[in-house]
Amino acid sequence: MAKITLSNLRHSYLPAPAGPSDYALKEIDLDWQDGGAYALLGPSGCGKSTLLNIISGLLTPSEGRILFDGQDVTDLPPAQRNIAQVFQFPVIYDTMTVRENLEFPLRNRRVESAKIAQRVAEIATMLEVEDMLDTRAAHLSPDNKQKISMGRGLVRDDVNVVMFDEPLTVIDPHLKWKLRSKLKELHQRVKATMIYVTHDQTEALTFADQVVVMQDGEIVQIGTPVELFDRPQHTFVGHFIGSPGMNILPATVTDGRVTFEGQPVAVEGAVKGEGGRTELGVRPEFVSLSETGLPARVSKVSDVGRHAVIEAMVGDTPVKAVIGHAEVEQGAQVHLAFRPDQTRLYRDGWITTEAMQ
């Protein structure tokens, strides 16, 4: 396994990029420690697959270097990087049995037969496919095919990193949670460095110890799932992570006082700086109904099982709140309160208030 370092990395698909907008990746500096579980999370087109292909050697970056355990591998082909990759669509041989599919990467490297048998048995046990070893892969269900594809990536014990590129996209929703749980369990057992690329926040947050959130070719925040939820450093992170996402509300700052729709709002910490586009960020979980506060009219009530989500109009701006069941009906006049220590001020997208101690 390896520590992976990305240094001053930039990439453009154009032969002569003229400015930042011409780059699919806009200067990435990143360290992934040996044995960690990481996720690249962001919407389609944000650059995460480009970054994965650069790490694997399928793309050479326009600028910057890639290091594995301090060794520069930027110019090495994929075969010399010792990487295992699991793709969106299962890469297995339908005419082979499950056993033969798991053996194949090891036989290709002329590993001795006894070691092959040992590794295949270990991986089959981890994946819970022991009873399928002599079944032809063509007869497997899609989720089991993807299990075998994962197994082919994990069967080698000499890889620097195992990379997963949207591996659950083609899996039925009711089976995704099983494979997510299995993948997390596999990481805890094999302790391999794993990088998981996805646009699905649930997949990223349940798998990774640390998540890299990307937007428009840039990293906007790196953190644990708890850090990303509790304290988004950018409005994109707040909006993208969470269901529903963070309320991002237009705000005005005058002499250190913050107002929203003409009403004063208390925020965490001191307000610093001036100018730029200012916005409030508060998660629906920290918006409550109150006797006093921001006057609002409920425009929508959605019962989502454990709780209800309401949307209320404060002036011309919609605000979402997570509340208990049957507390309010559509059309009701209410007051909303924002929890001050969870209400953050953002300037031009970036957080500007400091956390209360």
TrEMBL record:
Keywords: ATP-binding, Cell membrane, Membrane, Nucleotide-binding, Transport
An example Gene Ontology molecular-function term: ATP binding
Gene3D superfamilies: 2.40.50.100, Nucleic acid-binding proteins (2.40.50.140), P-loop containing nucleotide triphosphate hydrolases (3.40.50.300)
InterPro entries: AAA+_ATPase, ABC_transporter-like_ATP-bd, ABC_transpr_FbpC, ABC_transpr_MalK/UgpC-like, Mo/tungstate-bd_C_term_dom, NA-bd_OB-fold, OB_MalK-like, P-loop_NTPase
Coiled coil: none
Annotated ABC transporter domain residues: 4-241
Family label: Belongs to the ABC transporter superfamily.
Protein name as annotated: Glycerol transport system ATP-binding protein
Originating species: Rhodovulum iodosum
